[in-house]
Amino acid sequence: MNIAKKFDINVNLVLLVLSVALFPQVQGELKTINITGKISNKEITFDVYLPENYNKNGAGYPVIYSLHGRGGSHKSGAAFRVPMEKAIAKGILPPVIAVYPDGTKNGWYADAKDRSILIETNIIREIIPWIDANYNTRSSREFRVIQGFSMGGYGASLYAVKFPELFSICINYDGGMWNWQNMLRKSRKWESVAPVLFENDKKYYDRTSSPWTLASINQDKIRGRLQFRTLVGSLGSGLKKWRDHIYSLNIEMDYVDTKCRHDLKCLHEEAGNGSFRLMAKEFARAIKLEAHTQKKKF
User: What is the CATH number of the domain that holds 229?
Assistant: First the structure.
């Protein structure tokens, strides 16, 4: 081997060692889970991420529920998982469990009026209890995050305001914050949602699946208890209306404009670590409060 070639190999080895030292890798475990729903008696499929060196015993892990966008599935979770693992490796976020449900391609995270589609039921009443029963989680709301991109941002916002007793943080990545008129219209690629899911029944939609209505109904349960963070790409028009609606209820929201288009990778690169820092701060606060409460008992 000539000296120049040997030098190049040595330099490459040094660079590889330095890159591993400076940017440590985190290798968690990703599993696809199939369960039979106790309510629907149908198969429910979702992915679960377990952190590296997952411990079945001990204090338990926070859980992040990540909802995919329109046209996606539970297999779309890598767009959330990759930046999350980087944040864990850098010490920005503590080890967590992450769950990637299947919201179907155009289901808007709702239960259909005729009960033929039960996305909300599957996630809220089937998957969340199953995760807490089968993994070492911290099962109180303070350690549970709901987040989503595009249609998933809508779903995350819907579940946050409908079930504020379940979640402490809602992260909306350029969510499509549709209202009833949007549900009635066809989009360029998809059929209108209102007749398929809601049988054109606006009252049913408002009562069960409108984050706009449910935020107003539950404002007293949300205010001061639920952290909202919204990262804005190309869907800023609808997101500004959603922000203004939340503000009108005297509820706070961290609203972050970016230079991104409708691109989750870009949103994470530009402002995603702020989301992970918010989670870490809230988890730490909850642990401190938990310890204080335990101390008072004794």
Answer: 3.40.50.1820
What is the pLDDT at residue 297?
63
Q: What is the pTM of this model?
A: 0.90
Q: What residues contact residue 168 under an 8 Å CB cut-off, 6+ apart?
A: 141, 142, 143, 144, 145, 225, 226, 227, 282, 286
Strands 254-257 and 63-67: unpaired
206 occurs within a structural domain: yes
User: Is the residue at 15 inside a domain?
Assistant: no
Q: How confident is the model at residue 296 (pLDDT cuts 50, 70, 90)?
A: low
Domain hosting 115: range is: 24-297
Residue 113: count of CB within 10 angstroms of its CB: 17
Integer-rounded Cα Rg, in Å, for the chain is 21
176 in Cβ contact with 202 (< 8 Å): no
Q: Which residue has the tokens 């402490």?
A: 168
DSSP secondary structure code for residue 166 in this structure: T
Question: For 221-240, b where at least 16 C-beta lie within 10 A, e where not — what string?
Answer: ebeeebbbbbbbbebeebbe
Q: Looking at the 3D structure of the chain, how many domains does it have?
A: 1
